[in-house]
Amino acid sequence: MAEQQGNDVAQKCQQVDEGISRVFALLGKRWNGVIVAVLMPHPAHFVELRRAIPGISERMLSDRLTELGAAGLVVREVDEGPPLRVTYRLTEAGAALRPALRELKEWSDSHLPKTEPCAWTARS
Q1: Predicted TM-score of the model (pTM)
Q2: What pLDDT, on the 0 to 100 scale, is given for residue 122?
Q3: 3-state SS assignment for residue 87
Q4: Alpha-carbon torsion (123, 61, 67, 75), positive or negative
Q5: In this structure, are residues 85 and 50 in contact, taking their beta carbons and an 8 Å threshold?
């Protein structure tokens, strides 16, 4: 009897899909999704990324790029120069996010209120 009640409770409690949890744990973290979106059209140098994402500090950008690299979405490439330049580009896995990001952008355009350009980063 107690086992039956346990099964009923388990069936009533719907859990979030593990894959959804993992993707939002990574891309839902502030700046990660934006960094991927900035790198989508082409690779970029660190300073270009910094300029493209108002409000992000150099330390935060570096930390997030390291995290995205560890997740297999971004690759760091060093050109010994002179001068020494570091370029970041999406991996195949990172580039595979293109359709999902396109869908999220279209959803945002249809369902979220419009804001001033870069208003979401106004704390620079």
Answers
A1: 0.79
A2: 46
A3: strand
A4: positive
A5: no
